[in-house]
Amino acid sequence: MEMMSTNAKAARNPALDFTKGALVLIMVLYHWLNYFYGPHDNRYLRFLTPSFIFITGFLISNVYISKYGISAPQLPKRLLERGLKLLGVFAALNLTKNLLTRETSLSPSTSAAWSAKYFIDMYVTGSAAVGLQAKAVAFYVLVPISYLLILSALLVVLARFYKHTFYAACLVFLVCAVTLDYFELHIYIELLAVGLLGVLAGYLPIERVNALTRHPYWIMLLYLIYLAAVTVWNVVYPLQIIGVLLSLAVIYLLGYSERPPGKIRGCVLLLGKYSLVGYIAQIAILQILHFVLRDVDSEMLVLGISFILAFALTIAAVTILDAARGRSAPSRSSPAPARRSNRPAPPAPCPRRPS
Fold first, then answer.
1. What's the farthest any 2 CA atoms get from each other in the chain?
2. Model pLDDT for residues 251-301, shown as the tens digit of each residue
3. Are 306 and 293 in contact (CB under 8 A)?
């Protein structure tokens, strides 16, 4: 595999932005169910978290490696910095959440968030986001995304000496993930394997990805077969990988269009453009709604209000951000003001004498 290298900045892919925006909206639904509906069978939404990791891997190769080139010295540094920043954002957001929760509640989940076991489970094994400790964790998907970026920074360096590094790493992680799943041990290796699959998919030319839209009926048929398999066997790890690929293919298929976007599609595209902000905003919004509506007696009223406001406020958050960025950006049409100089003006040239 030859690594792609180009100095031109790649244009935004509307279908990819639509896919990311749709994942944010589905994540709003997923978290709304957890906060307001209670325990439920979420096997049909188990593709969601791995899909975010897969998209991250796709962007690593399709955007970062394509833009800088595999041998660029700033590439591993940029991936490492971005991974560490996301890890810092996750830590800061959870620290703030736990401090606020400590002021309003003394629940066991809150006290567990300050234990050493919590940090090991959260940053090493990833088990803190499952089971009893899950309520003490927010913005969980940022951890495996940051780990994938940090891992990719290392693999980029190794790929300069062995061009099949990402293939080899993906194979090793997949074997480890399947083995751990067999023993019912669920740690970050499973998500990192999916992310490395995304890196390999990102090497495909975008024309090959868009070719999926030529086979919509086959994709929908395979997706229905996947849903039937999940219904029978639940979400075993191999099925989860298939579910990620098929779910993303279906969403990408729905987002691929050459016509100007309407209002609904425009909102989804905007969410995709600011997918990280949308992800963080929707969790904060749902937690605030859960706190504000906790004393309302009518369960149906709480479900209805929280459902509408969760989606509306998430879209409003990214819309406000986009408008603020538009106002702060300098206008390209207006020329920059000339800088004044204290130097005297040069003398006018002498007129030429007529010949």
1. 100
2. 999 998 878 888 889 999 999 999 999 999 998 899 899 889 888 888 899
3. yes
CA-based nearest residue to 246, from 265, 231, 225, 232 = 225
Are the CB atoms for 176 and 193 separated by under 8 Å?
A: yes
10-to-63, 158, 211, 344 alpha-carbon distances in Å? 7, 25, 19, 45
Rg (CA), the chain: 24
d(CA 250, CA 247): 5
Residues whose CB falls within 8 Å of the CB of residue 311, separated by 6 or more in sequence, listed in order = 25, 28
Q: Find, among 269, 349, 280, the residue nearest to 317 by Cα.
A: 280
Give the pair of three-digit tokens for residue 318: 């990214």
User: Which 8-state DSSP code applies to residue 354?
Assistant: P
Query: Helix 14-32 to helix 299-328 angle, to the nearest 10 degrees?
Result: 150
Q: Which of 143, 227, 157 is nearest to 190 (CA)?
A: 143
